Structures are given as C-alpha cells and as structure tokens.
Amino acid sequence: MASITQPSLTRGVCKTANSSKSELNCIHQKSFVSSTVPKLVLKNSPSNFNRNFQAQIPKSTLVEVVHDSTIESNGNQKDRILKVGIICGGPSAERGISLNSARSVLDHIQGDDLHVSCYYIDTNLNAYAISTAQMYSNTPADFDFKLESLAQGFQSLPEFAEHLASAVDIVFPVIHGRFGEDGGIQELLEKANVPFVGTSSNECRQAFDKYDASLELKRQGFVTVPSFLVEGGRFNKAELMKWFETNQINSESGKVVVKPARAGSSIGVTVAYGVEDSLEKAEGIISEGIDDRVLVEVFLDGGSEFTSIVLDVGSGFYCHPVAFLPTEVELQFHESANGGEKDAIFNYRRKYLPTQQVAYHTPPRFPTDVIEMIREGASLLFKRFGLRDFARIDGWFLPSSHLSSSAENDNKFGRSKSGTIIFTDINLISGMEQTSFLFQQASKVGFSHSNILRTIIQRACLRFPALSSCNSASNALPRQLKSPENTDVFSEGRGIRKVFVMFGGETSERQVSLMSGRMCGLTCKLSMMTDLSRCYRLFWLQLEVTPCMLAPTNEYLSELNKDKESKTVWTLPYSLVLRHTTEEVLDACLEAIEPARAALTSQLRNQVITDLMEGLSTPSCFTGFDISDVHPTKYSLEQWIKLAKEVEATVFIAVHGGIGEDGTLQRLLEAGGVPYTGPGVIASRTCMDKVATSLAVENLENLGVLTIHKDVRSKEELINMPINGIWHDLTTKLNCETLCVKPGQDGCSTGVARLCCPEDLAFYANALRNCFPRIPSNSFSKAHGVIEMPNPPPEQLIFEPFIETDPIIFSSKSTKANSNGLLWEGRSRWVEITVGVVGKHGEMHSLSPSVTVKESGDILSLEEKFQGGTGINLTPPPSSIISEEALGKCKRSIEIIANTLGLEGFSRIDAFVNVDNGEVLIIEVNTVPGMTPSTVLIHQALVEEPPMYPQHFFRTLLDLASERSNN
C-alpha cells in the first residue's frame, strides 16, 4: 500500500530479484501506469510519535517501516529519504479547498524515497499534527471536533515551527488565502530556519494584496485595471464618485467588480452597479470579516479571462521562470439568463464545483502573438515580484481596448496589435485539486501529477545545500518513451494488468461520474501491489489504467435510437481526464482531433517544452516528462467491449445511473466475457428500481430491516390531474403530512425533493412538464439546495413519507454540546446513515456507517454528497449518538440486506438507523456508488481494522472483479 505513511515513520521499498528496469519503467502514452515497485526492507519499526497513529497502520505494513534516514540503493550508495511536511487548513473560507489540495499532493508525492507528515492549522491558528487518514476527510469539519482526541496539538505556532525544524526537511504549505499566501506561514518558517516550498514572506505580502500588487504592476510597466481602495470604516463617497467619473462609468448604474484585497482569488468577489451599490457591497465584505480592504475595479466587458501557471526551473537562487500554456476561462449560459447571469464572474462556485457554466481551453483560443505575450508577461511578472518555485497568475485579454488609451498606457507591457493583456491576480499557492489549473496545464506539456509536484519540491530543495543529498525525490518517475507511436498500448507485458475505467453517460449524475472515474483512474495508477502478505516473493502487478468516457447520445437523435446500444466510447489521454464536465471532455476530444487546432497545440506545446528543458537540464535529478502528446480515440460501445476482451482488461464501472446501474452495461460486458466491478445484472436491475428494492427485502422485518411505504405515480398524472386531489390522496394513503418524491429509476440524489404542501407538488410537476435541468435552491416552502433533475424526466415518480430526523451540529462554544462538541436533540431516535458494503456474493462485509450532516435543507444535494470541500460526514458515528451495540446490530442488518439483494464487489446502502436498537429503515441501494475524492466509502475503509488506504481499497475492488470472472 503505497499511500500508508505516518508522522515519524519512514517507509521501505519492495522489489523482486529478477525484475528488469525496463519492465518497471514501462509507461504508455494513453494510460495511467504505476511506474514504481516498492522494495522490501526488513527493519525494526519503532514509533516515537503520538501512539494514536500507531493503531491506524495496517499490521501487514509493519515489515515495511524503517527508522534509518537512508536506504541502500543498487549501487551501494546511500540516498537520504526526503521528509516533507504538508500543512493545510488555515483561517480563510478556502480551507476546505486547502484540504482537497493537500490530499492531492499527499497522494502524488509520497513514495519509498519521500516520507510525508501531515499538519493542519484551524481557524484560530492552532496547529496540529494529523494522520494521513484525516487528510481524506471531506471537509475540515469532518475532523475538527476530533482534533483533541486524534491529533497532536501544539501550544503555540513557535512550538509548532520548532517541531517542524526537527521533524521534516522541507515544508510544502498548501494553505489558500489568509495566513497561507499573505506571508504568515512563510514568516513563521523563516524565523525557525525551516526550508519551505514557495515564495518568501515579504514577496508574498506584496503579491497577495491585490491593491499593492496592482500598484507594483503599474510601477513595473504593466497595463493595469483602474481600481479604487475602500479601507476599514472609511467610505468616502465623494472620492469614489470622482473615480467613477474619471473612468467614464455611470455613477448610478455603471458596472464594476467589488472584491476583497486580501482574500484569495474567489472569496467575496461580486458585481456592483453604481457608487451606492459599490459602497454597500464593500461594506458587506468588511462587516462579514472577509477583509477590511476592498477594491472597486472597472468591469472588463467583452474580455476573456485567462490563467497561467509559471514554474521556476532555475537552480539555487537563480530564477528562470517558464510559463505553461495558459488556459482561457469561458463562462457559458445554456439556459435563458437574466441580467445577473449575463454579468456573472468566475467566482468560487464556478472555480471549484463541476458546472456547465464554465469551460476551459488550453491553449486559449487567442491569436498566437497574444498567447506568446501572456507567457512572456507572466514569466516577467514572476521574476520582478521575486516569486519562487511556482505560482498561478490570472488576467484578461481584451480584443479591443476597453481602457482609456494614453501615451503612457501605450508604452506599457500588454499592448499588442490584437488587443490588450492585463494581469490582475497573483496566486502564491495555486489550487492543487486533481483538476486544478496546475495539473491541467502541466499535463499539456508532459508532466503527470507526481512529476510536476516532485519537480517543484526538487526545485525548492536546490536553494538549501543541506538538502542536496536528497537527490532521489524525482528518481522514481518514469521516463517518456522515445518513440511512443511505435508502442502498442495493448501489448502484452509481463506484470502488467490492464484496467479500463468507464465514466460519463447521459444522466444528471454524469459530472459526478467523471469525478468518480478520474478518482478511480488516478488512485489505481498509484496502486503498487495487491497483497502485502505476498510481497516477499512476488511483486504486485502494475496497473495500466485507460480512462474511457461513455459519451452522451446526440440530443437530436430520436428516442428510438437513444434506446439502442450503439453508443460511443472515447479512450482518453491523461490531460483530457482533468476537465470538469463530460461536455468539456467531449468538446476537447473533438478539438484534439481537429487538424488545425491539433497542429497549433503541438507547436505551442513544443515551445514550452523547449523552454522548460533549458532550465531543467541543469539539475541532473530531472528524469524527463512522462506524458506523451497523443489524441483521444473513438469507438462504438461494441468495439470497445471487444477491445477490452482482446487485451484482457478489467472494467471499473463508474457510470452513475442509466446503463451503468440498470444492468445494461453489466449484461453487455458479461456477454463479451469482460470482468467488471460491482454487482451483476440482476442485482443492478433490482437496486436501480427503488420499488423492486423494497419488495426484495420486505420480508426481513424480523431481522431488523424495515422498508418505507411507497406510492408510485406517473409523470402524466402529476402533470394533467388536479394537484390538490393528488396531494390529499398521497398524504392519506401514506399517513403523513410531508412527502419525499424521487424518480422511480435514477441516481441517489437526482430529482429527490421534500414536499410540504400542494404548492410544492405543483412546482415539482411544472419542473417535470417543462423539463427543468435543475430546480433552483429554495424553490419550495422549506429551504433546500439546488436539485438536479433527471433528463429526460422520469416516467414514474415514487412518493414516500418524509422521515424527520433531528439535525446534528458541531459547535465548540455551545454549553449544550456533548464532550465532542456535537449538538443533537435526539427527539427522533432515527439518524440518516450511508454505508459501504464490500465482498463476494453471499459474503458481503459492512464497512462502518457514516452519519450524514446536512448543510442546505433536508436532502443532501449532489454537491454535498460528492464534491470535496462541501458536506460533512461523521465516520464512524459518534458513540454519543449511537452505542457500539446498536452500531453492531446495524452493520449486521446492512450485511443481511446486501446478501439478500445479491450484491457483490461493492455498493453503498443509504438508510435510517434507530440509535436505540440498531434497526435499519432502508432508503435505497447504489450499485455504482460515487467514488469521488470525498466519497464516504474511502472514509469508511480508513476506519477498518487494519485501515484500507485508497490505493489498497481500489485495488481490492479490482481483485474482487477478477476473482468473480475466474470462478
């Protein structure tokens, strides 16, 4: 299990005696491939850190633990293991994104040559050493209330810095916004002489403050956006009025951008109209405590936003910045938009949540001279601001200048024949989630996640002579094949196991499916072995993972053709999997095979690679790029299944809803003789139909399994019959006052809503009639989040009594909270849970349930369930809420449900549990559960004894699929 590393424990490596270097370094242009094989080192395993972490290390990994700071290499030369400390969290509203970024860094840098320790800063700037398991939490709130019992706290930040000075070689700060990018954490580390990745404190302070940075940009000769600073309680209306007039903006209705000067790139950014509205928005930002310095800027109408990653490839303190291919940010509006939507900006939601309201183009669809000038300007800015290692620089391209032209402006950097380039924001610690701009742009020029992160760390180490012996930080990276076009992706290779990860589809959960498929692919790529108990005699098979997208059917095809099985599947290169939506992936596929666009991209890519190699050739540790520039390939579904059979691939199904869960895809794969993950045809079909699921388990009441009464109505009845009569009939039959409505056959969150009155039912029926893609938040009488709707609308709707539960809230200040800080009234003795089941047919094992904590309304939205940084899951349920005895009974009931339904491989069961007696009231079963970075199944696997880290967990699911096919 490559991911298991604990603070103060150093990993060993495992290798077979007769495996050749060529076998271990094989990588294909189109696939995610595990590139290293651990070597077994038998050493003692002392633990001189907090004993709380010892229990979280699987017993089978203890043989791997080494205390020495060096390992013998094949050449009898000792290479020092680099000890990296990742720090995440912080006081800003972006701390949830910080946790996601840190988890991504952890996943992709750790290895036998690099030891990772994890640290967390809470909102009050208290520092903690945390386990790697806590890094896989959905949000900081998932473990904030456990910090005192599970983490090692420090009395003060200086004590924390003193610990870092002795415990790690170098720190990788992954704190976004305040304290992470404003020089706070950097100054702390500098005072303690702790090496760290990134820009120094003084330069961070200047670049982070948007107003100060704008002034410096202007002094450095760059075109800037005119801005006005509002500070503290000083609201000088007359001066702001004068600024509006100077910039020829209507003082009553002129459009401007209002944003905090020191709060990251997304938090608090809004549009205002006129002087009064601007001051009101600025006052709101200040009163909310986001920042006491607020900028009012000219709104750049008609411009295109871009962002550029800059990598420093110099040696030591010599700065040699190289900008990657920039990304154009295109805001899209597929539905009728009101004025507010037309004025929309690239805000926090659009940046971090999967939405069709934004699309990305790398390289941008700008003239070539503009792209070259963006790269040149970003590199120049990086150097003049004294930045280090890497940064993200945002800006705008205006085809025709919207700024006042003057002799002074005309001489500034950014003016070109094609338009004006303006740099607006400097991000000292770029987001590092799986699909972040850092990884998107790095993949375009040949870097995998691991390669770019390790290159950044290695670059930082070059500034510190004491770390020069840590020259193995990049040695484990694979080299790109010199002639990838001559290599057969599906060639037989010793020790290679092929996996096709399929995601996408046509349902409203297709974006979650993309997230699941990406998580499966990248995690399987990191998986090294399948059975630690056998590693002394056999290295685990490497995985060659090919991402595959089931493309949506053309919307203009007839319903008859849609039902046919002749669908399209694309096999994808690494870079295209890092897009945010399936539509964006499909557009990128078509763009990649368009000759002119492909030729331009290749030309620009080669230029960036040339620029990079000029600097990277100096440090001998750089092993080269590990991603090739290849095109996606299109197959019919039938051709794709035939291909999977020919290359003996196992299919990891990550298609949520539709043919991925109703048994169709499973039937086709079985007919083609292709092994796949998850339950078989019959179980999938049964669980997709929520009524059939209830009927299958309705005889289990004596075993502690209960079902919810249901009433099925057709869409036509809801649309055409009197709503008041339907409401009265439903509430009478179901003996309830509040209803829960859900599609008869669809995913676990799509179209699910709480209805409290006939007016709510009427609104829902109207959404069906007009094929709403989503129901906006708070459209019903009781508060709720955005509800994604099935497309096309379902023919059958299920109505159930809405089960009322008491909310669970975490509050460290309330006197009514229990010892863990949890507030729960407990009047209703039922709580909602979700729990994963894993195993063979008839032998399913229940993982530890998670208690779901809702943040917007009574029903979890898609975002709360699957998007990292939102939603709270308590895993396992706190003993103050449910006793160990009741929890044990609950898990046994879950296993009974799973085996009765014929589940195998893995699935997720949603239910209510009675905290007193452990009885289970089943809601539904998901045979293709979400496997995103925030999925509760990962949390649950981590609390197993011994814990299963993500790489081991995903590998186990593949093993179960293979074992079933061999029986």
Automatic annotation (TrEMBL):
UniProt GO BP: cell wall organization; regulation of cell shape
Any Pfam family hit: Dala_Dala_lig_N
Family matches, as SUPFAM superfamilies: Glutathione synthetase ATP-binding domain-like, PreATP-grasp domain
Keywords associated with the record: ATP-binding, Cell shape, Cell wall biogenesis/degradation, Ligase, Nucleotide-binding, Peptidoglycan synthesis
Gene Ontology molecular functions: ATP binding; D-alanine-D-alanine ligase activity; metal ion binding
GO cellular component, one term: chloroplast
Nucleotide-binding keyword on record: yes
InterPro entries in the cross-refs: ATP-grasp, ATP_grasp_subdomain_1, D-Ala_lig_Van_CS, Dala_Dala_lig_C, Dala_Dala_lig_N, PreATP-grasp_dom_sf
Record-annotated ATP-grasp domain positions: 214-458, 897-962
Similarity-based family: Belongs to the D-alanine--D-alanine ligase family.
Protein name according to UniProt: ATP-grasp domain-containing protein
